Structures are given as C-alpha cells and as structure tokens.
Fold:
Amino acid sequence: MPDTLNLARLEKLLAEATPGPWLVSPVEAWVEIPGEDAPICAMLWPTDLRSEGETYANAGLIALARTALPHLLSRISELESALRGVKAEAIDIAKASAKRCAYKGNNPYIAACLKHRRSDARRIAREIEAIDLDTQARNVLGEKA
Structure:
C-alpha cells in the first residue's frame, strides 16, 4: 500500500485511461468495452494460486473501479470540503469560548471553573487545527501511517 492516499494520481490515471464503462467478458476473464475486439485487460486464467471465481472477481473489481472511482473521488472531495468548513467553525467556536472564559470574577470557584473551561477550549482548538486529512483517510482505510 502507498504511504499516502494520492487522489491526484488516481485522477490523472482516470483521465489517461480508456473511457468506460468496462465490463467482464462472460466467456473469458477479460475486462472489455462492449463492442470492441481488444480487451482492456486480460486476466491470467485460474492457476493453483487462484480459482476461476477469484479470477472473475478480480476482473469484476477492475471493471467496476473504472466507473466507481470517479464517483468516489468526487465524494471524497465533497467530504473534505465539508470537513474543512466544520473544522474552521469548530476552531472559531473554541476560540470564542476561550475568550468568553476570560472573565475571572471574584468567586474563586467560578474563576477555577472558567480557567479550566478556557484551557479545554484552547486544547480543543489546537487538536482541531492538527487534524490531518490524509492520516484520517489512511486510518479509515486501515492503512499504516
């Protein structure tokens, strides 16, 4: 697995690859475009290492990826944009909360509570600012950082 989720590389490969949709030939484990004679990809026929079902599943995954990846990349982009907005809003809220907690008052109990709350708000703002989208994506995908 690559160290990072390289979305730009995926987008480049999709732009350069043969347009889809791609299908799996029902006769051979080929990934093909309907109506064309030459396959996009010919799978090695089943061996001791792979069954016929596994070979067809591999071909199916390759064919489906051509159609699914553009949609997944678009969705990732939308979610990253939304996360950036939520992240910015959370930072603003945490900073505003820290400012509101600046009041110390004369009551030592209230002053201690406000100091603790202000400290929490600053810590949360730092944690939010430190969120790394690539690391979070790798964690979701189960990849090693």
User: Anything to note?
Assistant: The chain has one domain: 7-141. The radius of gyration is 26 Å.
